[in-house]
């Protein structure tokens, strides 16, 4: 049976060979049959969505595997189709992309924030296997954003927020600017509709006047470039609304002070080099030649030139940006790049997966994606999914600055980074011993914010005893620097605890006039550590003494068993078993503490974790830290149970999300008051024009009270979500 693609999809994929077009048509028929009878929220047939996603991928001229995955990306999740069927019909590559996409597709905001964070973590790690997984996901998210009006108001806000925080920065990091710009503008429209409409009106009012000015400038530049014999294409470029809004907010400017609302873009086609010059060098040379022509035509504004050709952005973007005084004394920005640079500027890494009869520039793709390896490094060191996502937002998806070492090497850091971040990026020891910095030859304070183009030199103390300051944790921006500083202080604290435990044991031995050196050999201490702690490390013995899990007296008696004989002669009656912090710990006599990361409450399912030096830490079984530790230290977990109620209460934090209106906070507090409870730590803020957030803490007796409070507050008008948060 001959399958015909919809006209729009046929036109979008017209760059394919007849053989590959036939495979795409087969995939369309497969998807259409799988989704037959299904509808979207808009009432349209569901197949409209995979078609639109595939058309977005085809705009980037992606290869056949990516297009087929775009058509099939929802089949396994929403229909009876299996991964095995997809592999059998379309091959293992398509299966890998669809499988990766399916695993990361359920990103709805759940009851607990950490579940959403875990989904995001899986998504970001999945794309390290094949970047086409995230390209399909970005196309999927873009079409969902285009049809967001059919979702309820609270979902519009949640999806837009997630898009602005994760997906738009991800598109930017991959260099796919046309998707990034559209995602940002749509999310901006839903998150702050009032500001969006105001800015849209202001820009529209200036558009006609600016358009005429840009066209006249283009005609002037066209004439000069033609005289110089260059091959080129000129066009006007308008800055998108969210970018204007962000620049106004960041630089505290009004619209009239934004010089690059509209710009001239020059795309050059360099002549084939006949003098043996490498293609890359020829492309750079023609850009600088065009820049000279622009600067001879109009006067450049000092400090308004950016060279991304010699020093590309981390996502591979290359272009020359210069702002000049043009006609009538008005400033205008000119962007200069070659056609191959333009492809990377628009499509980023997707440009290297473009359809080229099966040829992919593997080395170039790998060069563009080196930063993704850092995702795997972050995952191995992050404590939980929340901290992983925070680290990715801060270190990998944030805006960047490019600074130079004294030797001229480029260092890529998040915007807002300080000399301390730079020092730790160079080497851990350089960071630890940093005492000052020179930026562009001048001494600056350590909290100085670095800017693109700065030349940074770190001044260090040569003493190995010198170390960082606790205050640095409030200054650094990068997660790597913060982690290294914290590790330094943890190491220092551990060393002090070891010394304190050792001194306590030595004092106990001297009090009994026992030979210290003879009884504290490594072999003796290992033997006692194994007997008392099931550990072969003397360090664990000293830490146990310092944390009072073991008394020096018990360790001395283990080292010299004869000393315990007298004590055993008089019978000791075992004290009745008592609970600690409201829980019984099975099989261990150790202090128990309720974990602060998940704040368990009587009635929660709980489990105990044997810490190193701090007794038993009691967690909820669904605590993300427990999930993480179960994989690596399963044998340190013990069973714990709640004792009978004895009147104690547990502080629990709640967060309420709702549509902003007058009196919402009062209604929430009235409900709490009606339960004869007092709310503490009450805080409220308005996150956008429509969304309000209220936080409060209430003392509860057990888990049942938590559910009752959530249910009661959830019935208040305009409240969309109530959940229990971390303290």
What's the CATH architecture name of the largest domain?
Answer: Orthogonal Bundle
Oligomerization: single chain
The helix fraction, in percent, is: 40-55%
Termini separation comes to 62 Å
Give the CATH level 1 class of the largest domain: Mainly Alpha
Structural class: alpha+beta
Q: Write down the Rg.
A: 32 Å
- Spatial strand arrangement across the major sheet: 1-2-5-4-3
CATH superfamily of the largest domain: Hypothetical protein af1432
What would you call the shape? Answer: globular
- Briefly note the CATH topology name of the largest domain: Hypothetical protein af1432
Number of helices: 29
Number of domains: 5
Whole-number mean pLDDT: 80
Largest sheet: 5 strands, mixed
Structure description:
- With 727 residues, the chain is of the alpha+beta class.
- The protein has five domains: 7-182, Orthogonal Bundle (Hypothetical protein af1432); 194-360, Beta Polymerase, domain 2, CATH 3.30.460; 487-565, no CATH class; 583-642, no CATH class; 650-725, Alpha-Beta Plaits (2-Layer Sandwich).
- The chain has a five-stranded mixed β-sheet with strand order 1-2-5-4-3. It has a four-stranded mixed β-sheet with strand order 12-14-13-15, with no helix packed on it. Strands 18-19-17-20 form a four-stranded antiparallel β-sheet.
- A hairpin with a 4-residue loop joins strand 18 (680-686) and strand 19.
- Mean pLDDT is 80; it is low at 106-114, 356-362, 378-383 and 572-579.
